[in-house]
Design a protein that fits this description.
With about 850 residues, the chain is of the alpha+beta class. A hairpin with an 8-residue loop joins strand 19 and strand 20. It starts with a strand and ends in a 42-residue tail after the last helix.
Length: about 850
Amino acid sequence: MQLVIVESPAKAKTINKYLGSDYEVLASFGHIRDLPPKDGSVDPDHDFAMLWEVSGDRAKQLKAISDAAKRADNVILATDPDREGEAISWHLLEWLKGKKALPKGGASRVTFNEITKSAVTAAMARPRELDTALIDAYRARRALDYLVGFTLSPVLWRKLPGAKSAGRVQSVALRLIVEREREIEAHDAREYWTVDAQMTAPNSTSFPARLSFFNGKKLDRFDLSNEQQALRAKDAVANGKFTVSAVETKPATRNPYAPFTTSTLQQEAARKLGFTASHTMRVAQGLYEEGRITYMRTDGVQIAGEAITAVREVIAKDYGNGPDVLPDKPRHYATKAKNAQEAHEAIRPTDLFARPSRTPAGDADKLYALIWKRTVASQMASARLERSSIDLLDEARTTGLRATGQVVLSPGFLAVYTETNEDLPSDSDDDEGRRLPRLVQGDRCQVADVAAKQHFTEPPPRFSEASLVKRLEELGIGRPSTYAAILQTLRDRAYVRVEKNRFWAEEKGRLVTAFLERFFEKYVGYDFTADLETRLDDVSAGDLDYLKVLRDFWDDFEPKTKEILELKPSDVTVALDEFLAPMLFPPKADGSDPRLCPTCGNGRLSLKTGKFGAFVACSNYPECRYTRQFAGEGGAQENAGPVLLGSDPETGEPVTLRAGRFGAYVQRGDAEKPPRASIPKDAPVSGPEDLPLALQLLSLPRTVGTHPESGEPITASIGRYGPYLAHAGKYARLTSTAEVFETGMNAAVVKLAEAAAAGPRARGTMAPLREIGAHPASGLMMKLMAGRFGQYITDGTTNATVPKTEDGMTIGLADAAALIDARAAMPSKGKKPVKKPAAKRAAAKKPATKAAPAKAKAPRKKATAKE
């Protein structure tokens, strides 16, 4: 018997179908060992010796593997065909040797890029030894990540309150997000105008054109910088008589995209399907283990020859074999990504004839359809386009218009697949699909309508998952298999938040980045990090000793961390205050001191750090209690200080909008402890027009009325977890800020009764957000609920938390069932049962009672010779 070890049960189940009874296939459930999260797990003083620890939750599976190995003739390590897969096999082999469970036949390594019968059986016929270079590269990366995390993170904890951790690649990705935030805040919107006309051709066809030539010169973007100039230009167009001065038509082609790599799959799944990187990888892992796609962690763009043949057959059968659909020769691709290894094929379906459903239901089918279309399109003909431009001049030849259009003559691959650009500016002139009328030089065209439009330059867009992954790949930072984990870590550390699929840098993340830029600039440098990735790839290729990489890094990094640890926290704050001064205290338009306190008028503002992070405060504290956020939306604009919204009509006191460490709030008066109220997200306050709402917030809690049964008041207010009703120590959740001010007595009594009937855990969540569907196995209806700590899915017996990276409103039936099953399989979080001591033989010493007489000990039966 031969023992085959893979990572996951799903993969084991699929492979088991292809192998005969001479094989036993078991799963290790991923890595079985790791570096324990404590000091000393990597010892730089002894050649970076690593202390590996077996994962506690692998005991049951490892016993099964050990027992099977002892009765097997040999072990076949069939983990994934990449660095991590090689490392898992190495850990398994080392563990088996340590347990003296390795069979006499030893162990061999096999890899396959797809889980199909032909691929698996072919791999079994070509066993090899473990790849030492890949294992060394794994050890180098793991040691570096450990050394950075366990050396740099304590520096952050001691010198920067509120900071949680730093990472070798994580911190560089965070820097990208923070720098984009700074660019957005520093952006000075510049006004410009365009003049757009609707023209009528001689054959009465209408087409749009834009002013491109005015006062005898070609217009640049900002030549029309105000409304007066724009209106003069508009009048010139409206009163002009235009003749076609030039017509230009150029053929163009658009080539198909290469098949998916890990990063491009993550990008397109984010754009087209709304998946996070981590969710994309989970779904792709399932497709791979089911044998539907090839291995999903790759930066290669080439596909196997037999797959190309299959693709071309599918194209010929489904779309035709003409030259405008199927090129004469197959296409071959090469990646342009920095540091790409191209060790594996691109991601493609294992069976191209397994066409996707026209209406894919679950996430797996949606992702499979995306992969199938991209693969098929990659071997199709280029799209043929026609790009046209028409120039028109008035009789004085001082005012000119230009019309542009682009027509698809032959769609080629566009019939199957096209990419979209999510970062196009809102004022972009997209002429795709616009067909212009057939005009010749000298044709006269009439102005049917004309409009002057105001625009403002836009700052660069915040990163989405897709654009951030693309940027990391362009810089050569990280590897495709690590991007999902990196982005998830940034969320988990609360360094960033995601709104409308875009990354926003949180204050904590901005402060950590500033600290690292000021004191560890080299280690968050893009070139340094990319160069280190290159060196690690050289280790993978067997061209560089991994210990040299570790020594070179540590010899410079360790002294730097010791130097920073010797600084006092106050010294760090002063240094950060100076480093961040251009961002925190930019020059004011009137030339006044940007550090002058806007409240007391003579104190100086500076950066401070406290238990909850950084903030800006006045030097005259405690006499002056002015504070504002370290950073946030609006950034430096907050230097203007409190915004006067108006006066309270009852007290005459000023009502102001302010920024604090925990967000925006409104305040009435300037007493030592003035009334304040936080501003909820669903009821923003921005200016004097919002004074009525500010007064309502300051008036909370609101008395709804007296409960008809208890005679005690019912109040509505906004607390830490949102809007709520309160009565006699009991609470019911409200769904919005508006309900706080609008809920009447009847509705309040009903809500409180429903909350009381539901119990404390379900209070305020009686109605499900949506019904997902029946569980495939149990048949129980699965519902999405809103809980105190976020969304969760329940089938009435098991509650499963929806991961922060996912939106429960879009989660599919299969994924919901998987969350329920995973939660049901987890051990209880309660206390472990106390193990009762074994009964002692001396228990007979317990004195007998009348109620319970002591039993006489039965004489032991002697064994006979026959037994």
